[in-house]
Amino acid sequence: MKSTTFLMICSLLISIFSFGQTSTEVFETESNGSTSFTDNGVIFNIISHVSTFDIQANYPGTGWNGTANDNRYIDNSGSVAPGASFSIKTTSNLFKVNRFWVFLSNNSLNQNVVGDLTIVGKLSGVTKFSQTKTSGFATSLGSTNGHTLIDLTNLNGQNYSNLIIDELQITLGGAYTYADFDAFTWVKDTNIVLATGEVKAPMENVSIYPNPTSGPLSIKTDENSKAEIYSPEGKLLKSIDIKKGVTDTDIFEFPTGEYLIKTSSGSYKIIKK
């Protein structure tokens, strides 16, 4: 049936669904000098590569929470250096990055110098994306307290906000030797959506029908397994124990819309009319 071909659309789901919780860390509850921070239940380590980066809380009103001045952020004020570089990394939940704000300057906090910023996302040590921003930086305090928005939904014309990583690395270039990093907006990944290049290919031993459906749903597989149905917001709506052969279930109680059903063989889009 033509409708069954609609099921195996794993790769298209990457940009459509973001099954996770979006959070913005502004560091206001973190401890001065700390080399880690916790946001939305996830611990991030601050790893210094060149220069020493940690939580800064000694200079109130010098950060930027996205709309106003704030008091705490990550910086390297104690050890400014050419090529300064640090990462934020977690070994628990994976994550995706939406945006963050940076203040960039030389040793004298002069922002009107020529420099660049390289942003790298890694997963298990493998680079998933790398871009260098060379222009468009704040050169005075202005309306953002001297901070520049780094938006990964449109970084050098590319959207990296859907790529799943476990490490975000920031490296200064040119005359930039000091950076503060604030208002980090990210998505807590639930391993439902996979990054480009890491999509599990749908297995031939699973079929889900009818699709679209008015409620009834059948899952055919050649092994015992489990299926989970998620809303577009990433909320788990239903868990189903799947037996070898055909398992019948329904989604009568769900409103009209698109849902994601995840099995051990991959993720599939289903539509309830």
Secondary structure layout plus pairing:
Layout (H helix, E strand, L loop, with lengths): L12 H4 L3 E6 L10 E4 L2 E9 L3 E3 L6 E2 L4 E2 L2 E3 L9 E5 L5 E11 L9 E9 L2 E8 L13 E5 L15 E8 L3 E12 L16 E4 L6 E6 L3 E6 L5 E7 L2 E6 L6 E7 L2 E7 L1
Antiparallel strand pairs: 1-14, 2-3, 3-8, 4-7, 5-6, 7-14, 8-13, 9-12, 9-14, 10-11, 10-13, 15-16, 16-19, 17-18, 17-20, 20-21
Can you tell me about this structure?
InterPro entries: Secre_tail. The protein is an all-beta fold. The protein is 1% helix and 48% strand. It is built from 1 helix and 21 strands. The strands form 5 sheets. Strands 1, 4, 7, 9, 12 and 14 form a 6-stranded antiparallel beta sheet that branches. A 6-stranded antiparallel beta sheet has the order 2-3-8-13-10-11, with no helix packed on it. Strand 20 and strand 21 form a beta hairpin. The longest helix has 4 residues. The two termini are 18 Å apart. The N terminus is likely disordered.
Offer a quick outline of the entry.
With 273 residues, this protein is mainly β. 1% of the residues lie in helices and 48% in strands.
Q: Which shape, going by the Cα principal axes?
A: elongated
User: What's the end-to-end separation, in Å?
Assistant: 18 Å
Would you tell me the structural class of the helices and strands? mainly beta
Output mean pLDDT.
Answer: 85
Total count of strands: 21
H/E element order: HEEEEEEEEEEEEEEEEEEEEE
Strand content: over 45%
Q: Provide a count of the helices.
A: 1
What is the helix content? under 10%
Spans of at least 5 consecutive residues whose pLDDT stays below 50 are 1-19, 191-203
Sheet with most strands: 6 strands, antiparallel
Radius of gyration: 22 Å
Pfam families: Por_Secre_tail (PF18962)
Domain Secretion system C-terminal sorting: 208-273
Keywords: Signal
Protein name: T9SS type A sorting domain-containing protein
